[in-house]
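Reviewers asked in the last cycle whether our approach scales beyond single polypeptides. To address this, we selected a multi-component target totalling 1413 residues and predicted its structure end to end. The input consisted of the following lines:
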Amino acid sequence: MSAEFRLPVGGRIDRAKPVRFTFDGKSYEGFAGDTLASALIANGVHLVGRSFKYHRPRGILTAGSEEPNALVGVGRDEAHYTPNLRATQVEITDGMVAESQNRWPSLAFDVGAVNDGLGRFLPAGFYYKTFMWPAGAWAKFYEPVIRRAAGLGRAPQAADTDRYTQRYAHCEVLVVGAGPAGLAAALAASETGVRVILCDEQAEFGGSLLHERDTVIDGRDAEAWVAEAVATLCSRENVRLLTRTTAFGYYPHNLVGLAERVTDHLAAPGSDLPRERLWQVRAREVVIAAGSIERPLVFPENDRPGVMMAEAARIYANRFGAKPGNRAVVFTASDSAYRAALDLKAAGVEIAAIADLRPDPTGAVVERARADGIRVLPGTSVQGTSGRLRIRSASLGAVVGGATETVPCDLLLMSGGFTPTLSLFSQSRGKMAWDEALEAYVPSVSVERERSVGACRGIYGLAEVLADGHAAGVAAAGKGASDGAARRFTVDAEELGHSGHRGITPHRRDASRVKAFVDFQNDVTAKDVKLATQEGFRSIEHVKRYTTTGMATDQGRTSNINALAIVSDALGKSVPEVGLTTFRPPYTPTTFALFAGQARGELFDPVRTTPIHDWAAEHGAVFEDVGIWKRARYFPEGGEDMHEAVARECRAVRESVGIFDGSTLGKIEVVGRDAAEFMNRMYTNAWAKLEPGRLRYGVMLREDGFVMDDGVVGRMAPDRFHVTTTTGGAPRVLNHMEDYLQTEWPDLEVWLTSTTEQWAVIAVQGPKARQVLEPLVEGIDLSREAMPHMSVRTGHICGVPTRLFRVSFTGELGFEVNVPANYGRAVWDAIFAAGQPHGITPYGTETMHVLRAEKGYIIVGQETDGTNTPDDVGLGWAVGKAKRDFVGKRSLARPQMQRPDRKQMVGLLTSDPATVLEEGAQIVADPNAPLPMKALGHVTSSYASSVVGRSIAIGMVAGGRGRIGETLHVPMPGGAIAVDVVEPVFFDKEGERIHG
Amino acid sequence: MQKFSGLSLFAKAFSSHKGWEPQWRSPEPKAAYDVVIVGAGGHGLATAYYLAKEHGITNVAVIEKGWLGGGNTGRNTTIIRSNYLFEESAALYDHAVKLWEGLSRDLNYNVMYSPRGVLMLAHNVHDVQSFKRHVHANRIAGVDNEWLSAEECKAFCPPLNIAPGMRYPVLGGALQRRGGTARHDAVAWGYARAASARGVDIIQNCEVTAIRRGPDGAVQGVETSRGFIGAPKIGVVAAGNTSVVMAMAGVRMPLESYPLQALVSEPIKPVFPCVVMSNTIHAYISQSDKGELVIGAGTDAYTSYTQRGGLHIATHTLDAICELFPQFRRMRMLRNWGGIVDVTPDRSPILAKTPVAGLYVNCGWGTGGFKATPGSGNVFAHTIARDEPHPINAPFTIERFRDGVLIDEAAAAAVAH
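The resulting structure, written as structure tokens, was:
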């Protein structure tokens, strides 16, 4: 059974494929090729939504992405629910579930409509003037009420399970829009052989040609011409065609973002398909063929369901075979509505009258309408309408004097002329200019390599549009203007005049009492716009923000120019003097997940792992995130918690031997004739005299003299340093070095190479470390005399080349075995096996932290916070006093850097050895002082130390070294904790073990 | 000034709202003023308001090259909080929060300050340490800030994903309950209206082209696109363009200007009860009264004066939003825009006298200036009126970068080690 308003023949729907869907729980039938809007219209349904503020009943206004009213929620379940979709863009699928929004309890009876009656108390910006009493009531009382009333649709309740993908593409010519201009441009550009991408937001190419009747191009009717053009483009290998694809954003240097909707129009999409695909297209030239949008007329009660744009009604009838009503009144300031009236009449709609604002409309189409028996009323405007859930009548009256006449109707078609679509051009930062002849803003000066063609630059005649597109396509392809450059298209189509109207249409009602809508979705009326100007909001941006006109989900596609005209009128300024609001991306709302693409779950960010990672995972390590690295934090055994595991790991290192994966440390190979000079300038330490085969702990400062990074550096040869950095600091340090090398000291002959990924680093620490390694090493004498603390040797371990560091971050005898990363796991396995007789114990970062804290070694980023000099953290010894210069030296000489009350690193011991301070806790002198208290410093590191047999902590305390021996206090919510200030070394104070 | 109230709104309704006057005057500039403020954003207008209200200086012009409130005031994500680490910062931002609490009534303009709570998420051990340091520092500074476990975060913000299998799991968060949001445009308009009512001239579409200085070096006024305007005191509050304006007086500022982006979704019914920030994975989100999800993105890596940023920056932020709030994956971005933020080396502002007599500067708010608007204007007015800083802004000098007395909130937030 066909729907009541379905025309018996015609349209591009597939009548052989009926599609069932529900809207607000009621089942309807449409056909493949229908949008939700066309299917509803074919079923006689016009009431589809409620407006934002007044909850007025609203119908379908347009047939495109500019739709302000017909917003629906669609989704078969919560994971697939999408709010605020335009019914004019939703393609129906079998079983689709759609619902209306912003109404309660039902669309036909909505309690929120009480706002409509209260409208006089709710003018533009009313909320800025009230809800201030009593103090604090806004957030507690008024705001929740307003929030509940606002909003349109609702968020999905469940996580979306669909996939989204991303593609990057390059082309010589990107054509946006596949109406006549875009098709002509793409045909011309692709003919030259360059790569062309053509996209259009609709389901099929053709644009306005898809709803033309009786238009002939080069001897073929419009639809046939489109089919042939698309077939030609399809046959060219250098062309990529993207339907259902919106060019949403124009970014610098001709980067255009395209959102392709891949599966929403499929009832049962294959699981291999993503829902949407993001294209980031870098085009040498962009051709914008975005067309134009018909402007509504602003008259009293112009928002009732059944009030529709004239061209939209024509689209529904001609393209979708859906009759938008039985009896129409047409209200126009433009010829195009006559064409719509004639087409609708041909489709069986009675045209009750055409009210034309123009006093003396003339022209072929007007005469044709008159000849067809349509009653044309020149100089007439709509004075108002009636009908609650659907328009019932329109009241027509002469613009100048005379009586009004009430004309019954169920459809009112309006046209105020067309507005060129400038969104993408504006996003490209092109300059727009007001064209007096066209009475429209049009593109003026391009900034990017871009061309606007056709209606979006104010060219309307079909032959001219096609020629314009063709010429732009040739020019964009850049292959020289051959014979085709000035190609002429033979077009047989209705000639239309292009006039229009902006702003309020004349009426004789009390303007202060009627609602004439400018922005339908946000319920902004002509009164609101005028009130804003009355209240001093004169910039169009102010009017926009104060009234919210143009800020709805359609971004003012249908409202901006009317608002502009009303402001212009109210201020007595010309339209260009008032200016134009900025168009912002995206062109139409674009799915969040499209941007996220594959960056989800595990792929949210790359995971960086070391060659030893799998071993650690197999041995039950608990990992922590350090930047994008995964680092083993501890290795619990037999149900241990972290503290138990760490205590055991610490004891193993102190008593026997532990093994630790240090591969995440940043590594930079600094090589070249001037390597030592470069190191001298980058680090505080002196490097010139460091002999090959020796290591030194280096401190790097920022220009402001504060500690930036640290690490052990090995001199491998006179012109070669093996630099290590903190794990997190690696990229920053390399950038810092390169920055200086390239911009400050280009004369230095030095090359920097990141070798972080090239070396696996296995730390073997503890009194038995030498015994474990000795049997594995070839060509290196590990003895105390031959290889003292802070030395480096090259040789082999397990047959693999190694740079063997004798170094310790634990205070024990220790080695760091650097081997090529690919051998890391094998060498680790061999060392672990060799260590078994000694009870070798793997330990993680948490144990490493405790061990170094016991020795008072700092961690940059934990003890330091970017405000500390080397001296503050007890590293004054690492600053080469005799050095001529290094980065940060001059800053260190400032008086503020010498103050005795600077925060200095100290040890802290609680009186109760079992109390472990909280890291980050503050340190004060008087815990009983009133708030705000003056903090002397804070706890930077704090652990239970199994080796020391009590809690230990490190803190940064103002004048701390001078306070050693004092008792300070750590105020906590449950009371203050007294702490003794001590030297920040808790174990092996003499430092003998390291030389073992 | 016409009184705004529910009653006045009700009364005016019966005369079709014809009785509403312009909210601020739009006068021609006078030849001279006691003080000229350059920049009619929130901070500049607030400065003028407090000059008039608290210091009796009403012969003041606020000059603006575009339209008032059109810069970062109208482009930010409206987050308000004061749980900064250092005492100096906490004092400054908390001064602002205290003013926010009474601002609507003070200005007789509903700025919609809504203390919905600002929750900052910790995703790794280092975040936890850093946030706990903040919580402890704030507690003894008398600024509310509390630590929540992941489960408590979820209870406070139900859409939050706290699944332990996340790439960067939520380990907890620091919550400031007095933090929240306000309506940004209303702040500019409310200050403009209240300042105008006290005699301040707001002069829009008037671009400063030069700063005129006398033989003694002191300022004499500004050359503008609408002629010379004399003033013995000039306060520069020009955000991203501060370095350009200050260069006119020969003062080189320690500032870099970067594009910072924000975006909103389509409006939906209330679903998001608070503000959530994640510095680690770069996402800031709240829901406006209108129903839009308001989302802050990061800055571009390169300096620029164009008020737009790269697509990849917004993309990265939406990755994070989708990960933290999977139910928003199908929500759609409605508008995306950029502003220019002026960033200092220590990420704290400059609110100070300058080496030029009569020239004062308020800048360097980086990505977080909106929250400070009332406090900033308040102490800056004091600085201009008395020619000496208020104790609260005394540490925020230009000289701190020379002397090394930084208030380094960026380093305090630090990075993983």
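Chain B has a mean pLDDT of 95. We regard this as preliminary and will revisit it once experimental data from Aim 1 are available.
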